[in-house]
Design brief:
11 strands, 5-stranded antiparallel β-sheet, alpha+beta, elongated, 4-stranded antiparallel β-sheet, 12 helices
């Protein structure tokens, strides 16, 4: 057998192989002999089917099966022996299969790029820190009591915090009128259009309020950003919130006996954990952007294509299940695929460079965090640790965090104090 591998581009390779006919024939004879002992055909005793009958009925399919196995083994052996780091699946370009002649085939594939991580010792990154205050805790306690409370119908005038169910008639500049029915608004919440809460304060059920607004540039609906609109808002239902008591809140949070100090401490622990996670996520994103900016290398197109397919498959799945999704252009999808592939390669390189292995304690903590959203956390924890696929998804999160931590040790870091609300309750900004 002769095998050669040539470069077709920086990352592209083409393998050419010549497998002697004698080797192919030996495998064919062995496979056909085995088949003759196992196959059962009508009119013949087991193991007594004539070889010519076996050949006529199964020969072509067995030949294709053996050729496929030879090609796969040749590729695997060559990649292993030459220590070739394959990126994506090889594509078989050509197969020459002629009777009594050597089997010849060629395959194209890409390899992973050689990555030399940029030195980040002189790169500076800002780490935000939050000190949860008593005021933050009291505000959170009030918010939790409200969120766990009940909504009751109100016939009175709408006030800050009222929940309104309304019908909209919207007339955008240079567009026809359009209606949106049964929209729920909580007055004062930052999801309500700026300026609309003020217009609706004091309004009552069945009243129609007119308002002229300009959609801010940060608004989630892409088509209306920056546009002026005239609104007619008809109030169909108004509700007031009846919050639960602090005693009821303590019970819902698992405290058997009410103790305000213990309740505050429990809420503080949750707040600190949530704000830490949010800050870590923001810091991760900053460091990943620094990685992208400071490392430049060619990417295997096959990996980009795979990632692009994953993005399209996910968009289709959300569409079929009527889940909200981001509308992306083809260029934006391609840019996202490129970014994901590049970051994946960089993180793998960091894991190898720093010899990072998933920390068991961090893995356990992350699983426990995910499990707390369910009513039976212990069952969920056991499920994760008994299912390798589920556990691997969490392991990737932990490895990413450990990779970021390793990089931060090599970078210049400065700390900046911010408030809890700045991080967890930011106002929508343009």
């Amino acid at each position: 057998m002769s095998v050669s591998v040539e470069n077709t581009s920086n990352l592209g390779r083409r393998l050419k192989a010549n497998i002697p006919n004698a080797e192919l024939q030996d495998l064919l004879k062995s496979r056909m002999l085995k088949l003759s002992k196992e196959v059962r055909l009508k009119g013949f005793r087991p193991g007594k089917v004539p070889m010519q009958v076996i050949q006529k009925q199964f020969g072509p399919s067995v030949r294709q099966e053996v050729i496929s196995e030879l090609i796969e083994k040749t590729l695997k052996d060559t990649l292993t022996n030459d220590e070739i780091k394959l990126a994506g699946r090889p594509v078989i370009d050509d197969i020459e299969d002629k009777a009594d002649q050597d089997l010849v085939f060629s395959a194209s594939f890409e390899v992973f790029p050689e990555i030399s991580l940029a030195d980040l010792h002189e790169v500076e990154v800002t780490q935000k820190v939050v000190d949860v205050t008593e005021t933050d805790i009291d505000n959170m306690m009030s918010k939790l009591c409200r969120n766990m409370g009940t909504w009751v119908d109100s016939k009175g005038a709408a006030v800050e915090g009222s929940r309104l169910t309304v019908d909209f008639v919207r007339k955008l500049e240079d567009s026809d009128e359009e209606t949106q029915e049964n929209v729920v608004l909580e007055l004062g919440h930052n999801s309500v259009l700026p300026g609309l809460t003020e217009k609706l304060l004091g309004a009552t059920v069945d009243q129609t309020v007119e308002a002229e607004i300009t959609y801010p540039e940060y608004w989630g609906e892409e088509a209306v950003k920056g546009k002026k609109a005239k609104l007619k808002v008809t109030i169909k239902k108004s509700e007031d919130n009846q919050p639960i008591t602090e005693v009821e809140l303590a019970e819902k949070l698992g405290l058997k006996d009410f103790d305000k100090a213990k309740l505050q401490e429990k809420i503080k622990e949750r707040m600190e954990d949530e704000v830490k996670r949010t800050l870590n996520q923001a810091l991760q994103e900053d460091v990943l952007e620094i990685l992208l900016e400071n490392n430049d290398f060619e990417l295997p197109q096959s990996l980009i294509d795979q990632e692009l397919k994953a993005i399209n498959d996910e968009a289709l799945r959300k569409q079929q299940t009527q889940q909200p999704q981001e509308n992306m252009t083809e260029d934006e999808k391609n840019d996202s695929a490129i970014k994901r592939v590049k970051l994946g390669l960089l993180i793998n390189e960091i894991i190898g460079k720093y010899k990072i292995k998933a920390d068991g304690k961090l893995l356990r903590k992350e699983v426990e965090y995910l499990a707390q959203e369910f009513g039976n956390p212990e069952e969920i924890i056991n499920l994760y640790f008994s299912n390798q696929q589920l556990l691997s998804s969490v392991e990737r999160v932990v490895l990413l965090q450990q990779s970021i931590d390793a990089l931060l040790k090599d970078m210049k870091t400065t700390q900046k104090s911010v408030t809890f609300d700045e991080i967890m309750n930011p106002k929508l900004q343009g």
